[in-house]
Specification:
By secondary structure, this protein is an alpha+beta fold. A hairpin with an 8-residue loop joins strand 22 and strand 23.
Length: 608
């Protein structure tokens, strides 16, 4: 078996949580404060962070992609969303840290109840947005306490052996794949800033920096980002401040007419110089830190906190990016199908074995750059952990009668993929088939929906849940997230979720991934990526939109109860499988081709 190139299965260090929290409490006493807030964030408020910013994981052992801890002198709490209510307690020492689901209370409410009058709560201003700091201030004030920014992160002060910042190669992203020159993008940005009465933008989101300047980096695992900032004035040249100095010659040549590249260490002084004349500077509300706001205001500028215009621009893919996404999904679908055929032939396998086999199937073509996130391969009860990551300590074999949930993706130069398939190992129980079919009905409902221009993801999220709700069931994560173009597998602002306020627009790519999870037993998720497109509806009185499904791979027919599908559901599934077969068959052969033909047979007319 080929070893994984892009993933490791090392066990996270959980056992040291109590002693590390004790060390942090000693630092609290030394600094004259009574508590410290530890978000799962870096200075860009990113979901995916470099190794040196994994403070929450180092301190507590919790490795989820979202969370926040508060450490006080006598108690500590870790706040997690619905994806991590199982994982959180399994990873931390619950005698030292109380795991608090966000569905029960917020960090601010907990602080108001647990701080006492006269105490001081400390925070790192680079790791919180201005709005986040305001919420902490209100919580502290409610308890009669005060909030204090610290210059040195208190976790960093006690973290022996903290990794050094990455310095990966920063390269040009070809215009043929980007579909638009960096100069044109900056022109659109400057027009938006002028319309908003602004003088400049601080680009604090590395995704936006990569997109705007047509560059890709290697500072973050599995996401081709170059960490740093950019200053874009309405008048004059832009400036980049990258952590890595390894800028290749092609990128330097491409940037020369547009921007100057400086070391990251020059950023604060140049921002202050830009603001000295009272400039109105936009800071991104989502990724701009409270420290940036303080820098702008201390230099005499006006910090205008709001949306970075680049975020909305980046979300709408152009023709080249859409063509790249379709091509990447065809290649990725072939790799996933080869894996699924192998899995079916091989029988029960261990989780790590499956991860390595899937990665090997993707790397056979030679054009995959990386996985887009560590593969989630959960057999049996591990499948019920929404963001489960297999380690050598947790690796288990999928036994007959169980379900195997495999959520994975890849980074190609022309697109980013993300796909989940749940497969039966041996004969599935009737309950598994019934609940899988309800999840499938929700998936199809999203895929088939037609909606008027201006509709938000929040307005259509319920369609994915209706069949589950009818049986008294639900799932505690969103139905869909945005996806980038050879960028992050999680990209905003678009999403399909109970709270999804952004209108969906043609060119946006999202996931469609309803699920169901029975703790201690199994998990089910079916995920394809979908593209928002214009849709012609005869007699329509307003512009209408719909979805093109990009992902191409069979859905396990053995887990479907045909009698539970409506006629339209069955028609969609059979048409999808026919499309999968037509797209992938020319590049497959032998046992894999035979498996594909069997796996994509029509459901219509099948026995219940």
């Amino acid at each position: 078996m080929t070893r994984a190139r892009f993933q490791t299965f090392d066990d996270p260090s959980h056992a040291k949580g109590p002693e590390r929290i004790a060390a942090l409490r000693a630092a609290l006493r030394e600094n004259g404060v009574d508590g410290f807030v530890v978000p799962r964030a870096d200075e860009h408020q990113s979901e995916y962070v470099p190794a040196e910013a994994e403070r929450l994981a180092w301190l507590t052992g919790f490795t989820g992609s979202a969370g926040l801890a508060v450490v006080l002198a006598e108690r500590a709490a870790l706040f997690v969303d619905g994806r991590y209510t199982v994982q959180g307690p399994a990873q931390v020492d619950t005698a030292t840290v109380t795991v608090v689901p966000l569905a029960d209370t917020t960090p601010e409410a907990w602080l108001a109840d647990n701080l006492t009058a006269g105490q001081t709560l400390a925070y790192d201003p680079w790791l919180h947005t201005p709005d986040g700091v305001a919420r902490l201030e209100r919580a502290a004030a409610k308890a009669g306490a005060r909030l204090r920014a610290v210059e040195t992160n208190l976790v960093d002060a006690v973290w022996a052996g903290r990794p050094r910042p990455a310095a990966g190669r920063v390269a040009a992203h070809p215009e043929a794949l980007a579909g638009e020159t960096a100069g044109a993008k900056l022109g659109r940005l400057r027009a938006a800033l002028t319309d908003g009465g602004l003088d400049a933008l601080v680009i604090s989101d590395p995704h936006n920096l990569a997109w705007a300047f047509n560059l890709r980096g290697a500072d973050i695992a599995h996401t081709p980002l170059a960490l740093g900032y950019a200053l874009v004035p309405v008048e004059g040249r832009a400036a980049l401040y990258l952590t890595s100095p390894a800028i290749d010659a092609d990128l330097r040549a491409a940037l020369a007419p547009l921007a100057d590249a400086h070391p990251r260490t020059a950023f604060a002084a140049d921002l202050a110089a830009l603001c000295a004349g009272g400039a109105r500077v936009r800071l991104d509300a989502a990724t701009g830190s409270a420290a940036l706001k303080a820098l702008v205001e201390a230099a005499g500028g006006r910090a205008e906190v709001g949306p970075d215009p680049l975020t909305a621009m980046k979300a709408i893919k152009n023709r080249a990016e859409i063509a790249g996404a379709r091509a990447a999904h065809r290649r990725d679908g072939g790799a996933v199908t080869r894996f699924l055929a192998w899995l079916d032939r091989t029988g029960p396998v261990y989780e790590i074995e499956a991860v390595e086999a899937l990665e090997a199937a993707r790397t056979e073509g030679g054009d995959v750059r990386d996985v887009s996130f560590p593969t989630i391969a959960g057999s049996g009860p591990n499948g019920a952990i929404v963001h489960y990551r297999v380690t050598r300590a947790t690796d288990r074999r999928a036994e007959p009668g169980e379900l195997f949930l495999i959520d994975s993706g890849a980074q190609y130069a022309d697109g980013t993929t993300d796909i989940t398939r749940t497969v039966a190992v041996g004969e599935p129980a009737p309950e598994m088939r019934e609940r899988f079919t309800r999840v499938l009905k929700g998936h199809i409902a999203i895929a088939r929906t037609v909606f008027p221009e201006g509709t938000t993801g929040g307005q259509i999220d319920a369609l994915a849940r209706l069949s589950l709700w009818e049986a008294g069931l639900d799932y505690d994560h969103g139905t869909g997230h945005g996806v980038g173009s050879f960028l992050s597998v999680h990209e905003g602002p678009q999403r399909i979720a109970k709270v999804g306020p952004v209108a969906l627009k043609p060119g946006m790519i999202l996931s469609n991934e309803p699920g169901y999870y029975k703790p201690g037993a199994y998990g089910i998720r079916i995920e394809n990526l979908i593209l928002v497109e214009e849709r012609a509806v005869p007699g329509a009185e307003r512009p209408m939109l719909g979805f093109e499904t990009l992902t191409l791979a069979p859905i396990d027919r053995r887990l479907i109860v045909p009698a539970l599908l409506g006629e339209a559901d069955t028609a969609w599934l059979d048409a999808y499988h026919a499309r999968v077969r037509a797209a992938l068959a020319p590049d497959l052969e032998g046992e894999t081709l035979a498996w594909l033909e069997q796996a994509t047979r029509p459901i219509a007319g099948a026995a219940a």
